Structures are given as C-alpha cells and as structure tokens.
Amino acid sequence: MAAVDLRGLSKAFGLVKVLHDVSVDIGDGEFAVLLGPSGCGKTTLLRLIAGLETLSDGEIRIGDERIDQLQPGQRGIAMVFQSYALYPHMSVRANLAYGLKNIGTPANVIAQRIDQAATILEIEQLLDRKPHQLSGGQRQRVAIGRAITKSPKVFLFDEPLSNLDAALRARTRVEISKLHQQLGATMIFVTHDQVEAMTMASKIVVMNAGRVEQVGPPLEVYRHPATRFVAAFIGTPQMNFVPVNQTSENGGWLQATLKDGARLDTRIATSAGHASPVELGFRPDEVAVDPDGALKIEVEVVERLGDRTLVYAHLSDGTPIIYQDHSDSQVQRGDRVGLRPHLHKLIGFDGSGKALHPELAA
Amino acid sequence: MAKLDPQEPVFSRLSYWLVIALSLCWLIPLFWVLGLSFKPNEELSYGLGTVFRAPYTLDNYSDLIRSSQLGRWILNSVVVSIIQTVLVLIICSIAGYGFARLEFPGRRALFVFVLIGLAIPRQAIIIPLHAMFVDLDLHNTYTGLILPHLGTPFGVFLMASYFRALPRELEEAAALDNASRWKIFLTIALPLSVPAQITLAIFTFLDAWNDYLWPLISATRPEMYTLTIGLAATQTNFDQSEGIGYLMAQAVFAGLPMLILYLIFQKYVLRAVAGAGGR
Prior knowledge:
Organism (chain B): Devosia nitrariae
Number of helices of chain B: 14
Number of strands of chain B: 0
Shape of chain A: elongated
Membrane topology (chain B): Multi-pass membrane protein
CATH class of the largest domain in chain B: Mainly Alpha
Order of helices and strands of chain A: EEEHEEEHHHEHEHEEHHEEEEEEEEEEE
Oligomer: heterodimer
Transmembrane segments (chain B): 16-38, 73-97, 109-133, 145-163, 184-206, 244-265
Keywords (chain B): Cell inner membrane, Cell membrane, Membrane, Transmembrane, Transmembrane helix, Transport
Strand order of the largest sheet of chain A: 6-7-8-3-9-10
Family (chain B): Belongs to the binding-protein-dependent transport system permease family.
C-alpha cells in the first residue's frame, strides 16, 4: 500500500482545459473521495491516476515512485468502473484471473487469490457464471473482486454505486467501507453523491470546474466549508444563503443588515481583516424558531418526514429558506414564522465566494 | 407463421397474404427446378407439365458427376471460398480495429480512402488486374483466384463500426489488467466481435462462392475452374432443349451448398441482411 501524491495536475482536451493545477496528497491507507457535480473533472482526475488519460502537466507519485509516465498496467493500480467493465465473454473466474495471467502469475497462486477474493466478497458460487447471468449487485462484487485479486497499491472506484438501487447502494457502501478496513488499502473513490462521500471517506476532495475547492475530513468539510460552493454542495437540504445589504461592527463582531432591514449578529471577527461578506449562510438545522428572531419568513411547503419536519419558506424579498423543525411541529403553509440562526454557526461569504468562519463558541 | 386473428387490423392481415404471395413467387420456380432435375430428358420433351407425375430419375445427377470434373470444381470452390473468407476476416478485423481504436496521423484520411474503394466496381479494374496477374504468372492458381478479393472496404468498414461500438471501458479495464494492445485485440475485442465476423464471413463466403467474372478470367484450365465456371462450361456441350433436366441438376448442385449454409447460419444471415450487424 502507498500514499498517492498529485502535484500540479492539469489536463486539457484540445482547447478545453478540464483540470487546473490540481494538487492533493492522499495518505497511505486513506479512503479519499473525489466529490463534485457532473463535469467537475473528478473522473478525469481518476483516469489520469489510472493512466487512461495522459497528463498535460504535473506529476503523480505512488509511494516514492513517479508513475505518470508508466503504462496503466504497470502503475500498481486497480480500478472499478462505473459500468463494472466485466469481460462479457469470460466467466467470473476468468475475469478475476485475467490480470494475474497477463503478468505470468503461476496458476496455483491465481487460484489462491481468486479463492481469497471470492471468500471476502461472498461470490464463491458465482465463479463459473458469465457476467450476463449476474445481477447488478453481483457484477459490482465481481468488479471489486477483480481489483482485489491484483493486490494493487491503490484502488480506484469510478462511481461504482450509481447503477445500484437505493437499498443495495446503502448496503454496498457499508461493505466497501468494511473492505477498506479489512484490506487497509489506499482507495480513491469518485462520486457526485455527498452521502457516499460523507459516510465512506476519511478525506473528501471537493472539486468544482476543474479545481479543488477543499480537501479535508468529512465533518470538517461539512462544518467549515472553505467556499460558498462547498457550503452549498455538501449537506442535504442545502445550506441557506441570505444576501447582506450592509455590514457594521458590534463589539468586535460583524453585524449584518439584510435587505429587509433585519439585523443579524454574528461571531465573525471584524479584526480578522477579511473582506465584508455579501451573504450569510446557515444550515437548516442550525436555527431556532423564535417569534422575535430576525428572519421573518412565510411558509410555502411543509414536509413531515416522521423523525423531523422540513419547512420550505421564503423571506419577504423572496430569498428561499429551508429549516428543520421537530417531528410534531404544527407549522402550516402560509404561516409567518420568526427564525433565529445560531450565532456561532452563521458563516459569511465574501464576493469571491470565500467563507468567513465564526469564532468557535467558548 | 402466426395464426390469423380476425380481430387484427386489415393492414396486418393484408401483409400476411402479401408475404405468402411473395414467398410463393419465390418458391415455385425453385421447386420447379428441383422437380425438373429428377425428370428423364425424354419425358420432358413431351411438355413441362410432366414434372408433376412419375417417373422420376437420378440420371441427371449421375450424368453430371460422370461427365464433368464436378468433384474438382466443388473442391476448388470450397478451397477458394474458405481461404478467402478466413483471410478477409483476419485482414478486416485487424484493419477495422486499427481504424476504430488506434490513434495515428492521417487515420481519418486513410479511412476515407479505404471507403472510396466501395465506389469502385470490380469490373472497372479487371483488365489491369488481369495484366498484373499475367505478369506475376498467378492465373490458374488458388492464389490468383483468392488474392484480388482480399481487400474489401466493406469488411473494413463493418469491422471498424463494430469495434467502435464496443464499450471502451472493457479495453481500459484490460489495459489496467496489464494487457498489451495486441493482447487486448486478441482476447477482448476479437472474441466480442464474433457477431460482426459471422456477418462478414457469410457475405464473403457467398461472394466467393457465387463469383463468376474473375474466375472466368483467371481460371482457364478446367482443373482450376470453380463450380460456377465449371457448370457454365458444361452447358455449352449440350442441346439445352433436350438436356433441361441435366441443366436443372446443375442448378441444384450449384445452389445446394448455399442452401445448407443458409440453414446452418440462418439466424446470422437474417441479421446480416437486416443490417443489424448481428448485435
């Protein structure tokens, strides 16, 4: 197993630049998730690591070895494709053996590795079937099995759960996490699903428009988003953003005046020297219902989910607001409600989208 | 055929009858030929209606076998058709894969150049080809019969289209599995292109078997005749009004191998002709 070091990677397809100077360190044994919307360059980044695309600039190291000049098969990498890419004309056993045969592994070692992988993934009874005789979930396992048998330094996963139904996806998520613990291997996983990222990753790399927006452990990315994009992308329902009309200082803290004249106190220090926020953000669960709260909203839709209630509303200027209430909330469509965002959770965003974080609560 | 359902729309029922009528138009002459081939020539001189009553005879077939080098011609046709088919498959698969998957300068231009070959009729190049084969002393050889038809733009086009449609991820997975480009071609792309290869094989075999013009020019010695040339050559030796049973036996002989082949590969022939490329 080995660390993966991506240094200044750029990739252009003709005149279209899809990756801009991407640098990420992924530690030995880490589970890194490349997360971002469609077209953000995450799959291209994974394919660069695999050697399926050539770099325009930068270098890739696995452990101490520079690998970006090597052929895909020589990089010590195994990849699970979104479509699984099982060889349709070969049995499961032949699929698992193919890579090992190509490097001249003795037959008894191949058999042993296949048995091990089949045991780990519980696919022993499927070994003599062809891929078309398998269900989606089984194909998924075989694809992972094909990766395991090669004992690679790094596992790459390209949205491998996207073809599974919701229940199977949740189960497979847990299984891949278990597998990661069991093998202790370095894994890089591409997804646009933040739930997968939050639940599986030890490190999330949030990407947008070919750039890395933020790298960090899931909770850090959730609680301390570096940019407005990260704040908006991570978390369901999405973070609320209210436009700021004017800012002032109140006892060393920034105070924001909204368009409707409401004033919101924050714990963002004015002494930090950063630009003034043009927006304030808070998550739907970081708010209290309070008739005297600064935010006056009108309720549009109420979703009662059993364990909680989600309320979709808007400010008088039309800014949409979502907040989470307790399960037996009596709120109705058309109600006017006062909200008070938690002081220490209000995050500011300047004109460039950079986040201004509050001081931690004492 | 499906059972007729009185509830079905008129158009659908009409099309059934149309299909039946068309297939009868097609089949009656074939059965006629088959029937005539079993009739003694003397009886046929009374009128062609005698085909519907006894006696029947195998004389026409035994005459055919005795009076010609039929066995040799069949062998020639089989050798030429099989070798041509195998070589066309090999050449077109490799070329098609190259055009579909390899990046090299001038690929598009070269592919267009190959496709232009589709527009050139064989007859147009037959004289220079003949001159060339005279110079090379290749007439009256299997090489001479096979060589001119090995470069088939249609085959290259068919295989290239098929390889392009194969999921690229399979080959990428194989590359990550340490397979060389050649190995990917042999172990992944080629086995997956079998349906297209069957289509191409059927077309090539039919083309080689039925070819008349080139063997007529290239094979001038009776022992190098293919079946088509051989059968045509025997026809000139008989008075056809008397020898009509014999003539029909020849027609059956010429068509039989194709019929057998069709029965075996029916599924693939239908797909090939339907233009689905057997996918």
